[in-house]
Every structure is written in C-alpha cells, then in structure tokens.
Amino acid sequence: MQSSPLFFTKLAADRIGEGLGGFVVEATAALSILVYLAFLWLASRWNQQSSAQGIFYSILTGICVGAGTPLSQRARLGVLFDLDCSVFYIEDAM
Any alpha helices (H) in the chain, and if so which ranges? Predict the structure, then answer.
C-alpha cells in the first residue's frame, strides 16, 4: 500500500482543527527543508541562489499555500483545494 499526503490528510481531518493542523503540516514541511539546507551548508554543497524578486515571489507563494492549507484540512472527503499559486506561475514574466 502506497501512502500519500491525501491519505494522511484524511486521517488527520477528524482529529485536529484545520488551523492547527495546517500549521503543523507547514511547520513540519519547513523543518524538513531547513534540515536539507543545513545538510547542503555543512557538506559544503551549497548551491542555492537568491534575489530580492525571488524572495518576494516566494513570500507570495507562501501566503497562498498558507491560505490553502486550512481549506485542504477542512476537505474531509479528500477534495483538496490547491492554492499553491502554481496557476499564477508565468515563466520569465519580469
């Protein structure tokens, strides 16, 4: 049996409020990314670039993900409302 985030969302939906559940999901994801970045830094394999525009658009994406997570936690029938702003992604828009 293969697991997916949808499976775990269904399990969590009746056991935690959508706000707190969304926070736990996002905090856990952020911690996982932080561990990966720490590994890159400590292993001298840092290859991450950044710019003011990149940070700005990442913040906007984070706002969309933050808004969508409580909605996905609330969808107890497995219908996820994906507001991760991917529909707004326009390559080389600026």
Answer: 5-13, 18-42, 52-74
Q: Which of 84, 86, 82, 67 is nearest to 22 (CA)?
A: 67
Q: Cα separation of 89 and 92, whole Å?
A: 9
Number of neighbouring beta carbons within 10 Å of residue 9: 19
The residue among 84, 66, 80 whose CA lies nearest residue 8 is 80
Q: At 78, phi and psi to the nearest 5?
A: 90, 5
Q: For residue 37, what are its two tokens? A: 């970045």
The pLDDT value given to residue 75: 57
In tens, the pLDDT along 51-73 reads 999 999 999 988 887 777 666 65
Smallest CA-to-CA distance from 24 within 60, 64, 62, 69 is with: 69
Residue whose token pair is 């940070």 = 55
